[in-house]
Amino acid sequence: MQLVKERDQGSAGTNDGSALIEEYSTKLDTSFIGQTTILIARFNTSDATLHIIDTAARSWDGRIVLMRVVINPARPDLYLSQAFLIPPTDYNVTLDTRTLPVDHSMTGGYWAMLAAPPFVCASLDTQRTVTGKVLVVGLGAGQLNNYLHNHFPRLNITAVEIEPAFGAIAKKYFGFKEDSHQRLYIMDGIEFLTKAASDAKIRIWPFYTVQMAFQGENMMPSISTPVRRRIAMLNITAVEIEPAFGAIAKKYFGFKEDSHQRLYIMDGIEFLAKAASDGRKYDAIYIDACPSTYHDGDEVLCPADAFLNITTIGHMKKTLAKTGMLLLVTNSFRHSFNFPE
């Protein structure tokens, strides 16, 4: 297995996380039976070495179904990010899955449950032509951003990510792109919220915020139909602490930045603090901030402890619009939480 180091050309001196990625040239043997996996890359975050794996399964009619996932090899049963790939119509005995585009039409896992609430509760309009403003704290591989950016093309998206490596992998492997509608800050999301809450001049940061995920087939048609129309117009901001996730999201998961979606590689805590300080108001805020490594005895896996801090919670409250909604992704063995009033 040949090891190939990938670096982002023209980004010397930047903290884009591309130097943290090691890519493998392993190809898929398409003669497999049942299911098979190949390691295509690995990257380092501040607390773990993570793997990017392409999984191939044979369907009942002989078709190949491909999915790209990010895992911690110490806990391979937990997918930190995942996206489906679009298989070629014709292929040889071997297939370089790294070249395959990401299927932006669907997002799996718990992200499916994150999409509906802002639309159902009217924090966001359901018209496809809406020009919303979106903040994503915790980019990961960028699959949430990719879906919103591709289905709500007029959204103005800002992403905040604390880990430079996640920003890099989102771009390199998951198709994440920065453009006039999407940008990425590598910074602490809590600092961003703090800044947004304290600054009354919203024009400094001209966007509302929402991070969401959606898998249409998991929703009733009465909900999914207007949501599908609406998504294409969202204005999305993603925040991801790991540059590598930004890189793989772009390269392997189809994440793209443009005039309606942007990614920030920075700590989500810092980003939230700044947003709060700036006086920004968001229609919806999604906190999907989980560590990439877990320890035996941990009661709360998600969100990261810093997002349960009373100061940070205050920043979240301050940056929500009057009809806004806050959603946190949780993964816990604890039976109950005591949140400050």
TrEMBL record:
**Stored Gene3D superfamilies:** Vaccinia Virus protein VP39
The record's InterPro entries line, in alphabetical order, gives: SAM-dependent_MTases_sf, Spermi_synthase
The Gene Ontology biological process terms listed for this entry are: spermidine biosynthetic process
MF annotations from Gene Ontology: spermidine synthase activity
Query: What SUPFAM superfamilies is this protein classified in?
Result: S-adenosyl-L-methionine-dependent methyltransferases
Q: Would you name any one GO CC term?
A: cytosol
**Name the record gives this protein:** PABS domain-containing protein
Organism the protein comes from: Gongylonema pulchrum
The organism that produces this protein has a lineage beginning with:
Eukaryota, Metazoa, Ecdysozoa, Nematoda, Chromadorea
